[in-house]
Design goal:
33% helix, five-stranded mixed β-sheet, alpha/beta, 14 helices, 437 residues
């Protein structure tokens, strides 16, 4: 264990990098991702050196307990308390193993997004959010300080608390702001898409401001359809096989696209509080007859691709950089490419981050900014009244002493510097991958 500057003393102006473990489990709630990165502030840039991704699937009993608490199911405070503890213990164990495997036991900080169990949205406004996985268990398991609860501060300032990916996307993937630098438009407009349980997109608005919002379901409804059709024997459309076999039900697709959420202007956010199995069942039953399981999955795959394509047209995107578990579904990716044309669809790997690891690295970045006293939200994207330093800090085994805040303006760029081919460790397979960040 590294008792570095976050735990044992201020940096006193030194620019020693921090080794940070960024962790999350998304709306697919199948596994926990833990990415290790070395981060430092150098001039106007944050430099991130990826050191690998460690992934562990949830044990079946924990996953079942989590599923039983998620909307639209009813639950009890006892079940929530037990789940918060068990998730915290599991996150702590994963963080400790990631530290040993990827940081030689010398990490400085853990940043845990936790597991979203409810995102409270009323009308066009987010009112609250709840991520479980008590940080104290992570601190006990690792001896390291932990940054957690990263969404609430943005919501407290009137924001959606999502998508937090806007910060990484703006620093790394989007073109230069034409309003700030008209001489450097940066080529065709570029946007970023994450395909988890929920799909979210980041792009620049007409005035150069960063926009980011949840489009709607990516894997959420597909997973729900497969799970229900197989009685839980299958939980995802592995390899897009069902979508490839099925035929799109155009009438059902039109009904699904009539969802009022899609017409709301950004900023906006959503989740499985809206897009869940009961939601899908009600819309299928309202039509009087049900498509085959494969036709339903093909229709839901087309729904996500159409939502993405509409966003590409709305923002005039020449390039879309895609990450998240959905990139492993060839049927979904093929339909996105076809419907979004002539937008060029690329992967986050082209910009230095593995598509599967991008979100975990996002949370490593956000926690790194937090301990340096720097904001992690993008108000134009979330709708917050202003920038905010995100999260809550739980001390590790030693005194909590933070780095001195950096002099000068907040970083304007994120630079990825590979150190070695980044390893990936896993003790099991993934399904849809992390959800909306």
């Amino acid at each position: 264990m590294n008792n570095g500057p976050v735990n044992n003393g201020p940096m006193n102006g030194e620019a020693r990098p921090l080794r940070v473990i960024g962790m999350l489990s998304g709306t697919s709630y199948d596994a926990v991702d833990a990415a290790v990165a070395e981060l430092a502030i150098e001039g106007d840039a944050v430099v991130l050196r990826p050191r690998g991704l460690h992934t562990e699937p949830y044990p079946a009993p924990l996953r079942d307990a989590l599923a039983a608490c998620l909307p639209p199911a009813t639950t009890t405070l006892e079940a929530v308390c037990r789940l918060d503890t068990e998730l915290g213990r599991f996150f702590g164990a994963v963080a400790a193993r990631a530290n040993a495997a990827l940081a030689a036991g010398r990490a400085d900080l853990v940043v845990s997004h936790g597991q979203t169990v409810y995102h409270w949205v009323s009308g066009a406004r987010a009112r609250g959010t709840l991520q479980l996985g008590a940080a104290a268990w992570i601190a006990e398991a690792t001896g390291l300080p932990v940054v957690s609860d990263l969404r609430t501060r943005d919501i407290a300032r009137g924001g959606q608390g999502a998508p937090l990916a806007a910060l990484l996307d703006a620093l790394l993937l989007l073109n230069a702001d034409p309003a700030a630098d008209p001489a450097d438009p940066g080529g065709p407009a570029r946007g970023a898409l994450n395909l988890g349980g929920i799909a979210n997109i980041t792009a620049r608005g007409d005035g150069g401001e960063v926009l980011a919002y949840d489009l709607g379901p990516a894997n959420a409804l597909i997973d729900a359809a497969v799970t229900e059709a197989t009685g839980g024997a299958e939980r995802m459309d592995a390899g897009g096989a069902r979508a490839a076999r099925g035929r799109v039900d155009r009438a059902l697709l039109a009904d699904l696209l009539a969802e009022p959420y899609y017409r709301l202007p950004p900023p906006k956010s959503t989740g499985k509080e809206r897009f869940h199995a009961a939601y899908l069942r009600a819309r299928v039953e309202a039509r009087g007859h049900a498509p085959t399981a494969d036709d339903l999955v093909a229709t839901l795959t087309e729904l996500t691709a159409e939502l993405v394509a509409r966003a590409c047209r709305a923002h005039g995107l020449g390039e879309l950089v895609v990450s998240g578990g959905g990139v492993r579904n060839p049927a979904l990716m093929a339909r996105i490419r076809a419907l979004a044309a002539p937008t060029r669809v690329t992967g986050a790997e082209e910009y230095g981050l593995p598509a599967q690891a991008k979100e975990a690295h996002l949370f490593a970045l956000l926690g790194f900014l937090t301990v340096n006293g720097l904001p992690g939200n993008v108000p134009s994207a979330t709708g917050a009244s202003g920038p905010a330093v995100l999260g809550s800090l739980t001390p590790g085994a030693g005194p909590l002493r933070l780095p001195e805040p950096p002099a000068g303006a907040a970083p304007r760029r994120l630079v990825i510097e590979p150190v070695e081919p980044a390893p990936q460790t896993a003790s099991g397979s993934r399904s849809g991958g992390p959800g909306r960040a």
